[in-house]
Write a structure and sequence with these properties.
Length: 128
């Protein structure tokens, strides 16, 4: 699925980023559809993508040793998912599971970091 730089510019985490940079981000991004119950990432996985929830909702939870799931966050359309793991180079603290059919913008984080953030340090701060 295609998404335009105009479309992501309207999202709060990208509104301070120049249109030229938004177009660049889209060259190493894709929009993927997920169904309710699908898993985006598991607790302990290392991040590879910066995720932006375009539609739908997702819960992030930890599983206790007893097997009980404890919800850490519920995120909705327009929010980033797991970005602190990316920027901190840390494993995800919980599992992210979709609560309904959803669309996610998946940005290749390594390319984002090396091709854009290294050259324009203000972009990382603008997103966070």
């Amino acid at each position: 699925m295609k998404y335009s730089s105009k479309g992501i510019a309207d999202l709060s985490c990208f509104f301070k980023i120049e249109p030229l940079h938004l177009k660049e981000i889209l060259t190493y991004s894709l929009v993927k559809k997920f169904e309710s119950g699908d898993i985006l990432f598991y607790e302990g996985d290392m991040p590879t993508h910066l995720y932006l929830l375009l539609s739908g909702s997702i819960k992030v939870y930890k599983t206790r040793p007893s097997g009980v799931n404890v919800i850490l966050h519920t995120l909705f359309s327009g929010e980033m998912v797991g970005e602190f793991a990316n920027f901190g180079n840390l494993p995800y603290p919980g599992t992210a599971q979709f609560q309904e059919n959803s669309d996610v913008l998946m940005i290749n984080f390594e390319r984002f970091k090396t091709e854009l953030m290294m050259a324009h340090s203000d972009i990382g701060y603008a997103i966070i």
